[in-house]
Amino acid sequence: MTNKYTDIINFDKNHVWHPYTSMSNPLPSYVVDTAEGVHINLKSGEKLIDGMSSWWSVLHGYNRPELNNAITSQLSKVAHVMFGGFTHEPAVELVRKLVSLSPEGLDKVFISDSGSVSVEVAMKMAIQYWQSKGQANKHKMMTVRNGYHGDTFAAMSVCDPVTGMHQIFDNVLMKNIFAPAPSIMFDELWHEREMEPLTALFAEHHQELAAFIIEPIVQGTGGMRFYHPNYIKSVRALCDQYNVLFIADEIATGLGRTGKLFACEWAEISPDIMCLGKTLTGGYLSLAATLCSTEIAETISNGEASCFMHGPTFMGNPLACSVANASIDLLLQNDWQSQVKQIETWFKQHLIQLAEHDRVNNIRVLGSIAVVETHQAVNVATIQKHFVEQGVWIRPFGKLIYMMPPLVISEAQITALIKAIATALPHDDYFIE
Ligand SMILES: Cc1ncc(COP(=O)(O)O)c(C=O)c1O
User: Fold this and answer.
1) How many Cβ atoms sit within 10 Å of the Cβ of residue 389?
2) Is the distance from the beta carbon of residue 113 to the nearest atom of ligand 1 less than 6 Å?
3) What pLDDT does 1 receive?
4) Cα angle vertex 300, ends 297, 303, to 5°?
């Protein structure tokens, strides 16, 4: 290895924070050189098949000419300009697309810079909406256990305190209301009894509730759980009955992952507010959007403040909007539904071989998302090293070895991902007792 390579590794280890790892004894970070299609190429020479889409974001694979071109052609026009007092074609085109594609009734779009911020925006919109209607008492959120909505303060306050990783901040977070997590899974038989605890909580708390927030169908980081669409349908009905806004956090599920363009479509409902992020730019740049109904936007605008009280510096960044437009175009031009269905079929066919393994508790697949839940938690450092040696990139956490590859993945590449998991399972030192 060259001096430059070891210098990157050493400087990184000593000075650069990485997510969810110690600064004094960090998990290893592998040095990326380039990425192309489904491959991430390391400086040390390994070529890894990406099973993670860089945390749900790289939908079409890396280094896509269509997306590169969108950024470079926008770059020569304007890279960034403030959104206060200016507008531009990339942002207007993006909002036009989002309004036309999203569930009915979501006509106003607030563009922001990351998923967590779009959740903050959604929660603030809900609170400001009720305040503008003279009902400032409606300022709390209700959600379900096992949820994850981001790492900023308001977002943390609706994450599951345990699986959502934020218990440590408990005494400074807004006190919101938690219902039990949905317990009937996606393919299981529905029973109305499922809604009894939530119905009781709506009846008890509706006068103080601004909104109910949930990740529709797929609870991601809080457990990778796929639950029944009727749950979402019933939440919509309860929100209507009790005058509570419904926020759908589609940051992970939006734009195709579950087999529908938006996961809310499984339940054939429209939320009042919807958050998008992650793959909005095909994984190229950080961008998010909070969509809401005309009624919410008008109520806020006619309220005491006469505007919504939020305005990030990089709101509507032209480069990010341009690549988002190109990514959405690419998604719609490709037969994305068949791609997702095909990946789902491959996962189901090839993951079966792991089902009987003593270490495996449960295997589940929905759209292009696959989860191998183990009985023991993984040792991230040792199992990750194995995956890299096997030529794949899978980043498990807790008892969850999960994948959501770029949609351009092939069957042979899916089987390589699964083989890497299969060969990891017998190793005691890859798991924590
Ligand atoms: C459902 C959901 N909401 C919000 C977020 C936060 O998004 P970001 O990491 O872009 O802030 C995430 C990120 O994992 C997520 O999965």
Assistant:
1) 11
2) no
3) 61
4) 150
Q: What is the DSSP letter of 189?
A: P
Phi-psi region of 320 (alpha: psi -120 to 50; beta: other; left: phi over 0): alpha
Residue 166: per-residue pLDDT? 76
Q: Kind of pairing, strands 273-276 and 209-214?
A: unpaired
Q: Do the beta carbons of residue 403 and residue 51 sit within 8 Å?
A: yes
Whether 430 is catalytic: no
Q: Is 82 exposed, middle or buried (0-12, 13-18, 19+ CB in 10 A)?
A: exposed
Q: Could you say which of 5, 20, 348, 428 is catalytic?
A: 20
Asked whether 147 lines ligand 1 (CB < 6 A), one says no
* Ranges of residues in the chain whose predicted pLDDT is under 70: 1-2, 164-165
CA-based torsion, 231, 236, 242, 244: positive or negative? positive
How far, in Å, CA of 35 to CA of 47, rounded? 9
pLDDT given for residue 165 in this prediction: 67
CA 67 to ligand 1 centroid distance, Å = 22
Nearest CA to ligand 1 atom 16: 252
CA–CA distance, 350 with 63 (Å, rounded to integer): 28
Q: Say whether 134 sits in a helix, a strand or coil.
A: coil
Is residue 30 part of the annotated active site? The answer reads: no
User: Can you list the domains of the chain with their CATH numbers?
Assistant: 31-60+335-432 (3.90.1150.10), 68-333 (3.40.640.10)
CA angle 272, 278, 281 (to 5 degrees): 105
CA proximity to 409, closest of 29, 34, 32, 40: 40
CA dihedral in degrees (352, 353, 356, 362; nearest 10)?
-40
Please list, residue by residue across 168-194, b when 16 or more beta carbons sit within 10 angstroms of its beta carbon and e when fewer do: eeeeebeebbbbebbebebeeeeeeeb
Q: What are phi and psi of 244, to 5 degrees?
A: -125, 135
What distance in Å separates the CA atoms of residue 337 and residue 333, rounded to the nearest whole number?
11
Q: Which atom of ligand 1 is nearest to the CA of 250?
A: 1
Helix (H, G, I), strand (E, B) or coil at 287: coil
Return d(Cα 369, Cα 354) in angstroms, integer: 16
* 120 CA to centre of ligand 1 in angstroms: 11
Q: From the alpha carbon of 220, which atom of ligand 1 is closest?
A: 16
Supply the pLDDT for residue 227: 98
Q: How many CA atoms lie within 13 A of 267 on its CB side?
A: 23
- In ligand 1, the atom with minimum distance to the C-alpha of 288 is 10
Q: Which strand (E) or helix (H) includes residue 48?
A: strand 47-50
Encoding tokens for residue 47? 């070529």
pLDDT of residue 170: 86
